[in-house]
């Protein structure tokens, strides 16, 4: 069975973009592949060397993944810093990673601009740690967005280089896995673009009903259609995309018809949308709160995940040591 691996930096709560763009697919993938879902807490240190409360941030994502339906009995869900074996592979890969190629990585150059006072070696070697994360489990497929494509190319390069360097066919080249067409781009409700944490327009899975309603009622609209069947402006198209994602087909068709015959009232649409987003989020939110309050369960899941991931990682490290010539 092929192995799928996904990593997420613990930078906050999950929002609807994360859910429909990624997590929803993970829930399906866990039945079809050997899945590893991990929380990249070490990677956070590249930008936040003194993290506020890194354990809490990791715990937040863990609880949210579980509440969404990632099943710790099916998938291996773990925290990066619980699996020390990755560090050894990171070291080996770094010995064959060259300054020039690391400096050319776009996200490194971006970070150099963003944090000129903290251009640390961890930032430079971000792609080798990410490659180690991936190949330590010999992952075949990695679901990533476009922004991670260069890191994925580096991971393939480092896997190939290891094989060539030591004359083995050991690491498979991890392919970027573009989630099925069903993984939609969730729009923001502020007029244009996508929903995102950094965009400041996110609706979070833990938002309560009032917050969600407030966010939706504030959505940007336009002056309304003036002639039948006119094309929708971007803010309106975005509202309809959200309806398509969370509402029933009847609801979508109802408002679409109203738009097309120019009788639509955006206030009604938003009210319905808020209701439908709440119908979707409320059970998940309740589940998140329930799970994160259950320390015993959370600890157990983290421990089992760490054990399963360590088992897989230490097998690789034993073999890699043997290949390079160290004591296995
Ligand atoms: P954020 O935009 O909040 O920083 P990340 O960049 O950490 O989110 O994304 C984590 C995952 O969620 C990625 O797989 C990304 O493709 C997905 N994702 C984030 N926002 C959206 C969105 N608006 N639509 C679809 N997928 C999204
Ligand atoms: N770099 C990824 C991001 O910023 C997070 C990440 C770290 C990752 N290691 C990974 C993703 C391994 C996939 C595989 O989103």
Task: Walk me through what this model shows.
The structure is a single chain. With 328 residues, the chain is mainly α. The protein folds into two domains: 213 residues, 3-Layer(aba) Sandwich (Rossmann fold), CATH 3.40.50; 80 residues, Tyrosyl-Transfer RNA Synthetase (Orthogonal Bundle). The protein is built from 14 helices and five strands. The strands form two sheets. A three-stranded parallel sheet has the order 1-2-3. β4, α9 and β5 form a beta-alpha-beta unit. The longest helix has 30 residues. The protein is elongated. The two termini are 26 Å apart. The model has no long low-confidence stretch (mean pLDDT 96). The chain binds adenosine-5'-diphosphate (ADP) and tryptophan (TRP). Adenosine-5'-diphosphate (ADP) binds next to α1.
Summarize the topology:
Blueprint: E1 3-8, H1 16-32, E2 34-39, H2 41-44, H3 54-68, E3 76-79, H4 85-95, H5 99-103, H6 106-114, H7 121-124, H8 126-135, E4 141-143, H9 149-166, E5 175-177, H10 209-217, H11 234-246, H12 249-260, H13 266-293, H14 295-324
Parallel strand pairs: 1-2, 2-3, 4-5
The structure holds adenosine-5'-diphosphate (ADP) and tryptophan.
List keywords for this structure.
328 residues, mainly alpha, Rossmann fold, Tyrosyl-Transfer RNA Synthetase, 2 domains, three-stranded parallel sheet, two-stranded parallel sheet, 14 helices, 56% helix, 7% strand, binds adenosine-5'-diphosphate, binds tryptophan
């Amino acid at each position: 069975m092929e192995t799928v691996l996904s990593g997420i930096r613990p930078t906050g709560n999950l929002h609807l973009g994360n859910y429909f763009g990624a997590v929803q697919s993970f829930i399906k993938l866990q039945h079809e592949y050997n899945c590893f879902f991990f929380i990249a807490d070490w990677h956070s240190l590249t930008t936040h060397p003194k993290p506020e409360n890194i354990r809490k941030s990791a715990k937040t994502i863990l609880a949210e993944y579980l509440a969404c339906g990632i099943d710790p009995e099916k998938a291996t869900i773990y925290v990066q810093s619980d699996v020390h074996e990755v560090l050894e592979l990171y070291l080996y890969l770094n010995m064959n990673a060259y300054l020039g190629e690391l400096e050319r990585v776009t996200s490194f150059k971006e970070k150099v601009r963003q944090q000129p006072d903290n251009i640390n070696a961890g930032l430079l070697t971000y792609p080798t740690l990410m490659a180690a994360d991936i190949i330590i489990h010999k992952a075949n497929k990695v679901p990533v967005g476009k922004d991670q494509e260069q890191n994925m190319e580096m991971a393939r390069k480092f896997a190939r280089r290891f094989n060539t360097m030591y004359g083995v066919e050991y690491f498979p080249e991890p392919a970027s896995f573009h989630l099925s067409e069903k993984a939609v781009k969730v729009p923001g409700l502020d007029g244009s673009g996508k929903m995102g944490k950094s965009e400041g327009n996110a609706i979070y899975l833990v938002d309560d009903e009032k917050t969600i309603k407030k966010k939706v009622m504030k959505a940007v609209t336009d002056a309304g259609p003036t002639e039948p069947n006119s094309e929708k402006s971007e803010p309106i198209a975005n509202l309809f995309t959200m309806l398509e994602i969370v509402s029933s087909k009847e609801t979508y068709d109802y408002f679409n018809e109203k738009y097309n015959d120019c009788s639509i009232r955006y206030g009604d649409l938003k009210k319905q949308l808020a209701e439908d987003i709440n119908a979707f989020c409320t059970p998940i939110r309740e589940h998140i709160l329930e799970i994160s309050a259950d320390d015993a369960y959370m600890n157990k899941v983290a421990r089992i995940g760490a054990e399963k991931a360590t088992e897989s990682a230490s097998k690789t490290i034993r073999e890699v040591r043997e290949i390079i010539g160290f004591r296995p």
